[in-house]
Amino acid sequence: MTTAVVVGGGPNGLAAALHLARSGVDVEILEAADEIGGGARSAELLEPGVVHDLCSAFHPMGVGSPFWADVDLASYGLTWKWPEIDCAHPLDSGEVGVLHQSIDTTVAGLGVDGARWRGLFGDLARNFDDLGHDLLRPIVNVPAHPIKLAAFGPRALLPVSVLAKVFRTPAARALYAGVAAHVYTDFDRPLTASLGLMIAASGHRYGWPVAEGGSGAITAAVGRAVAAHGGTITTGVPVTSRRQIPDADIVLLDLSPAQAVTLYGDLMPSRIRRSYERYRVGSAAFKVDFAVRGDIPWRNPECARAGTVHLGGTFEEIRRSEKLRARGVMSTNPFVLVGQQYLADPTRSTGGINPIWSYAHAPAGYRGDATDTVIRQIERFAPGFRDIIVGTRTTTVPQMANYNLNYAAGDIMGGGNDGLQLLLRPRTAVDPYFTGVDGVYLCSQSAPPGPGVHGLCGYHAAESALRRLRKSGGAAR
Predict the structure, then answer these.
(1) In this structure, are residues 477 and 24 in contact, taking their beta carbons and an 8 Å threshold?
(2) What share of the chain is helix, strand, coil (3-state, %, to 5)?
(3) Which residues contact 109 (CB under 8 A, 6 or more apart)?
(4) Are 55 and 401 in contact (CB under 8 A)?
């Protein structure tokens, strides 16, 4: 029987293991932490019964993942929950940009910019599944939907700062800025519009749901699916040398390119090793979790109904703070994401105490303490927030890197989204998952299609391994 070892039990390592196990391969996962999940874990951090997400929180790409749909994670215990409003972006003026799953409702709330919003996102939302088929895999492929991809391309190639000129009102420009800021790089760079377009389109197609019970429920469900198909999972096993990896026909690495070089660099072709060594990390996340009594006293009531609130002010303010961060400078007014997951999933709260998830965009390797900066940014739009805090837990950038070794320098995106690396990660290749070492593949979010709890990096890496195995006359079907 064909055997495989997966190093790392994050969403992509689990997805890779599941695809192999469903294909008749005997699979073992080795996870360094005491539990699986990687960036998709949850825990009671501050108060008993109050559940916080440790990293990933909202999952438009997860609920829309074709692989998870094929697996039917609901049958393994996963339940999605949707907030009333997906995202709100308040301004000091009292205006707010509001993103609903319904594009019609979103358009109605954006006034004179409603038609512009529909023109930018309407066709992408309608065609999201077809676009996703072509975009959520290696960029070097024969597209199945070339006309729809051609319609997306001209917009995707633009810098965020250019595409934002479509909008006239501060609220619409700010709403777009918050979505686009998920690209985590300078707004003036070409190609940066692409990720924001896909995130907004996926939201209009599927919404921005949370997993009932916490993001850890996603990976717990995938773990149960792996076990149901005969795979085994061993936790508490850090792998620092390839001598610790059992002999197997296939080895999949849910690791960063740098970690892959540590394990297999001496066996890699020099051109591939150099590509991995040149791979750039992106900017970091400075995370602050709060336990609060009651609800955040937002000045604008729309924010009180939103699962996600983007803070940072106007488009121009966010553009400026993102440019500083990309240059290695921590802004005094950073872009901050606030998660109110309990609005969709009340099981996360208890006794009137609610979990609040937040993080600020920070430069890679930032060593300062931005806790008060995050609180001040929330207070800016919710006066009195400090008064309802009953507990605070800060995860600094170095602590984020220690929490998950894939998050080098605190980079939760698995690599910088600048230049061609946005499209050609981790290297330029027809098969970017293959490390050049026989039987060894990279399946982390540093591989296509990049970050998100969609499992597709793992699925495509496993499929790459199976294709090569079949060509060599291997036993997996």
Answers:
(1) yes
(2) 45, 15, 40
(3) 98, 100
(4) no
Cβ atoms 109, 98 nearer than 8 A: yes
Residue 134 CA, distance from chain mean position: 19
- One-letter-per-residue 3-state SS of 17-58: HHHHHHCCCEEEEECCCCCCCCCCCEECCCCCCCCEECCCCC
Given this model, what pLDDT does residue 136 score?
75
Phi, psi of 323 (to 5 degrees): -65, -40
Q: Strand (E) positions, 74-168?
A: 80-81, 85-90, 96-99
Residue 385 has phi, psi (to 5 degrees) of -60, -40
**What is the length of the chain?**
477
- The segments of the chain whose pLDDT lies below 50 read 477
The per-residue b/e assignment along 179-208, b for 16 or more CB within 10 angstroms, e otherwise, is: bbbbbbbbbebbbbbbbbbbbbbbbbbbbb
30-57 pLDDT, tens digit each: 999 999 999 999 999 999 999 999 999 9
pLDDT per residue as tens digits for the range 345-392: 999 999 999 999 999 999 999 999 999 999 999 999 999 999 999 999
Nearest by Cα to 31 from 406, 396, 399, 284: 406
Whole-prediction pTM: 0.95
The closest of 40, 109, 141, 83 to 345, measured between CA atoms, is 83
CATH number of 3-41+66-79+212-280+414-471: 3.50.50.60
393: closest CA among 379, 375, 406, 411?
375
